[in-house]
Write a structure and sequence with these properties.
Distance between the termini: 54 Å
Largest sheet: 5 strands, mixed
Strand content: 15-25%
Helix content: 40-55%
Shape: globular
Strand order of the largest sheet: 2-1-3-4-5
Structural class: alpha/beta
Number of helices: 5
Number of strands: 5
Order of helices and strands: HEEHHEHEEH
Radius of gyration: 15 Å
Amino acid sequence: MKHSKEYYMSIAIKEAKKALLIDEVPIGCVIVHNDKIIARGFNLKESKKLVINHAEIEAIKKASKKLDNWRLFDCDLYVTIEPCLMCMGAIYQSYIKNVYFGAKDPSGGAITSSINFNEIKNLNHYPHVEGGILEEECSSLIKDYFKNKRQNKKKLK
């Protein structure tokens, strides 16, 4: 049975909520191959104290291990927030076929917001990209997280 893009994004949202539980920026990701989720990831940058531990990178590492290959041909990546330049580089390098994201990231998105990765000339692979999947829910997760952070910071003053 073929699942919808919304179904896979709802699973990515569940991953984002796992990040929220450990006070990480709530971004979640799943990678799908042959209509089956082969990897999941969520943001672990603060927990692991390492800048590269974004949800997409976590999921790409797991998918590569699962397929025993760094080339993730015919894989689809679903992420709650538009990928940054670093993550788009990893997506490009791993040959992921399709990238689906929820909400735009005006401060760091590398597909439609800050730059468009697919407009970089002379790359040998350009993933298909589609945004706006369950956009409101994805956007609310991240906006509420930062709103709560700001409110808590004010309370401490």
